[in-house]
UniProtKB/TrEMBL annotation:
<protein>
    <recommendedName>
        <fullName>Pentacotripeptide-repeat region of PRORP domain-containing protein</fullName>
    </recommendedName>
</protein>
<feature type="repeat" description="PPR">
    <location>
        <begin position="115"/>
        <end position="149"/>
    </location>
</feature>
<feature type="repeat" description="PPR">
    <location>
        <begin position="393"/>
        <end position="427"/>
    </location>
</feature>
<dbReference type="Pfam" id="PF13041">
    <property type="entry name" value="PPR_2"/>
</dbReference>
<feature type="repeat" description="PPR">
    <location>
        <begin position="185"/>
        <end position="215"/>
    </location>
</feature>
<feature type="repeat" description="PPR">
    <location>
        <begin position="358"/>
        <end position="392"/>
    </location>
</feature>
<keyword id="KW-0677">Repeat</keyword>
<dbReference type="Pfam" id="PF12854">
    <property type="entry name" value="PPR_1"/>
</dbReference>
<feature type="repeat" description="PPR">
    <location>
        <begin position="463"/>
        <end position="497"/>
    </location>
</feature>
<feature type="repeat" description="PPR">
    <location>
        <begin position="533"/>
        <end position="567"/>
    </location>
</feature>
<dbReference type="InterPro" id="IPR002885">
    <property type="entry name" value="PPR_rpt"/>
</dbReference>
<feature type="repeat" description="PPR">
    <location>
        <begin position="288"/>
        <end position="322"/>
    </location>
</feature>
<dbReference type="InterPro" id="IPR050872">
    <property type="entry name" value="PPR_P_subfamily"/>
</dbReference>
<dbReference type="Pfam" id="PF01535">
    <property type="entry name" value="PPR"/>
</dbReference>
<feature type="repeat" description="PPR">
    <location>
        <begin position="323"/>
        <end position="357"/>
    </location>
</feature>
<feature type="repeat" description="PPR">
    <location>
        <begin position="253"/>
        <end position="287"/>
    </location>
</feature>
<comment type="similarity">
    <text>Belongs to the PPR family. P subfamily.</text>
</comment>
Length: 637
DNA sequence: CTAGGGTTAG
């Protein structure tokens, strides 16, 4: 009688699932569920309050479905497996995969006759929990019990394997599918193509697209590839595919347009994005609210808040009401171009339009003021939000701390840091890193190290930014060996040094007469595929200059330009200084010319050094004349 | 039951 069970399930992934298995008291389950959510959101997610609100809604909806399940379970005769599957599907849509797996188990206990649909749902849930291995074992079980897999079974597993990064296995299953007499359908191809795209294999995805042309790939497959091309900054290629699909009579939809418009905005062609929007409207495809928000955001990021603002009237005209996110996005856009007046105005305006402020609205505006060094405005807003009964969260506090750090009110920042924790807000990696970075920049490295240790004690893992601040701080106070220890520890913790981390450490070596180690690390960096930027070149070239390695400095300068990295004023000035200090007059003058060619000015220190050498009469006459003229130009004479 | 996209805060 138990032939229909899916027995011997892998152990539960979630304690909640066990609980559901044995307990019938749903209110208790729901309350536990809430707690389990809360616990899991503390460390990784940024906005506790925000998540909790969403979870609460989600939990209530889940609660309703669990009540329905319970009613089903007590009905005589039992509802069919189809009815149960409908219910399970709704829970799947809420992303409660472990719950669904538990409920499928309960179906067996209840003696509901299973079918391939139920197996497919379970397989799908395991795939979504990143356990395609369990999905495969359920698949095996289904076969053993004589259930015929269908398209959904194969396609679901192929998706799971792709998501797991096992493209080879996905292809194997594809072959197995053929052997079982299933001709892959358009969904199978779509799944494979999406898998290839997500795994960075766009070329193969396009090859597959060409192979299945007679299967008439639809708008979804084209959109998948267009999306990937846009993400990879191959917008031109994406536009070609777009043209191709329309010529074939495949109608693009809102997704296709949205991908392209985002791609065009991020490749800084907002005009083309706008033309595409017109095209879309002309085809009577109306963007939804999210689409508008995405566009507004894309324009704002380009510093086009004003243009973006025009969209507001436009979207209202199209019958779409902006929401809080729309306004928050625009406020952020105005802050970005330092139009705090406009930002503040919009902030006030939104609440007159029925869009209530949320914690993000405040955070965006506070950040705008803080970045503008108007910390008092930020603090005023902080008070105001409490009055509006909007609780500041860890982001709010971190923003304020950052603002205080920016104006060197470090003690005040530390006060807020303690105060927020007294209020029950747990500092996260950004909070700590902000303080650590500032302490290091003020050469208060011991206090920074104390906080770094506190992070470990409070189980807030440092990230590459935290490490970089510490390494830079230690280098600045000459503690090169200690800095190097942290540099080594970083990789022990499974983190990748960033170009800033490398630059800090290389700079530390080079400034402390450990040029060889700096050079070695520079090479290691390149080997690891990390691309040097102008700061990295500056510290390295500086190291060469100040150690009398003129040729090496020159060579690296040339190499830098070949690699497409443009020198800045700081780099060239410091090369001139380096050469002057080494009495390499000819070279120094050569770089004065380079400075001039690039349209940069001598900085104060370089100028002082130059004049010193001129007074000593070291410069040849012609060079001397050139430098004089240049100095005058620099001084605006 | 199976394939695509998507906005805001440090």
């Amino acid at each position: 009688m138990m032939t229909t069970t899916i027995m011997n399930w892998p152990p539960s992934l979630n304690p909640l699932a066990n609980l559901l298995h044995s307990v019938v008291d749903f209110p208790i389950i729901v309350s536990l569920l809430r707690n389990s959510h809360r616990r899991s959101t503390i460390a990784p997610l940024h906005s506790l309050r925000h998540c909790e609100e969403i979870d609460r809604e989600n939990d209530l909806a889940l609660y309703d479905e669990l009540v329905s399940f319970n009613k089903f379970a007590h009905r005589q005769p039992l509802p069919s497996i189809k009815d149960f599957c409908k219910l399970l599907t709704r829970i799947v849509k809420m992303n409660h995969y472990s719950v669904v797996i538990s409920l499928v188990q309960r179906l067996d206990v209840l003696g509901v006759k299973s079918d391939i649909y139920a197996f497919n749902i379970a397989i799908n849930c395991f795939c979504h929990l990143n356990r395609v291995d369990f999905g495969l074992s359920v698949f095996g079980k289904a076969l053993k019990r004589g259930f015929e897999p269908d398209y959904a079974t194969f396609n679901t597993l192929i998706r799971g394997l792709c998501a797991d990064g096992s493209l080879d296995q996905a292809h194997k299953l594809f072959d197995q599918m053929l052997e079982s007499g299933f001709k892959p359908n358009i969904v199978t191809y779509g799944t494979l193509i999406n898998g290839m795209c997500k795994l960075g294999n766009t070329t193969d995805a396009i090859i597959l697209l060409r192979k299945i042309e007679e299967e008439s790939p639809g708008v979804i497959i084209y959109s998948t590839i267009i999306h990937t091309l846009c993400k990879n900054r191959q917008v031109t290629h994406a536009l070609h595919l777009f043209q191709e699909m329309t010529e074939k009579g495949i109608t693009p939809n809102v997704v296709t347009y949205l991908c392209l418009m985002q791609g065009l905005c991020s490749s800084e062609s907002p005009q083309l994005a706008k033309r595409l929007l017109d095209d879309m409207l002309a085809r009577n495809i109306s963007p939804n609210l999210q689409a508008f928000n995405v566009l507004i955001n894309a324009l704002c990021k380009l510093g086009l808040a004003t243009e973006s603002h025009n969209f507001l009237a436009f979207m209202i005209e199209k019958g779409m009401l902006p929401n809080t996110t729309t306004y928050n996005t625009l406020i952020k856009g105005y802050c970005l171009i330092q139009r705090l007046d406009k930002a503040k105005h919009l902030f006030n305006y939104m609440s007159t339009q029925g869009c209530d402020h949320d914690v993000v609205s405040y955070n965006v505006l506070i950040n705008g003021y803080c970045k503008n060094q108007e910390i008092d405005e930020g603090l005023t807003l902080l008070k105001k939000m409490s009055k509006q009964k909007i609780d500041p969260n860890v982001v709010t506090y971190t923003t304020i701390i950052h603002g205080l750090c920016l104006v060197s009110k470090l003690e005040d920042a530390l006060v807020i840091f303690h105060k927020m924790q007294d209020c029950g807000h747990i500092a996260n990696v950004v909070t700590y890193s902000t303080l650590i970075d500032t302490l290091c920049k003020h050469e208060r490295v011991n206090e920074a190290l104390y906080l770094f240790k506190l992070m470990d004690d409070t189980h807030v893992p440092p990230d590459v930014f935290t490490f970089t601040s510490i390494i830079d701080g230690l280098c600045k106070v000459g503690e090169i060996d200690a800095a190097n220890d942290y540099f080594l520890e970083l990789s022990c913790r499974g983190l990748q040094p960033s170009v800033c981390t490398y630059t800090a450490m290389i700079g530390g070596f080079c400034r402390n007469r450990r040029l060889d180690e700096g050079e070695e690390l520079f090479m290691k960096m390149e080997e690891s595929g990390c691309v040097a930027n102008v700061h990295t070149y500056t510290v390295m070239i500086n190291g060469y200059c100040r150690n009398g390695k003129v040729d090496e400095a020159n060579e690296l300068f040339v190499k830098m330009k070949e690699s497409g990295c443009l020198p800045d004023s700081c780099l060239i000035n410091s090369i001139i200084q380096g050469f002057l200090l080494q009495n390499e007059m000819t070279k120094a003058i050569q770089y004065v010319d380079i400075l001039r060619e690039n349209g940069f000015l001598l900085d104060v220190y370089t100028e002082a050094l130059l004049q010193n050498f001129q007074c000593c009469g070291v410069l040849e006459h012609s060079s001397k004349k050139g430098v004089e003229i240049f100095s005058q130009e620099c001084n605006g004479e």
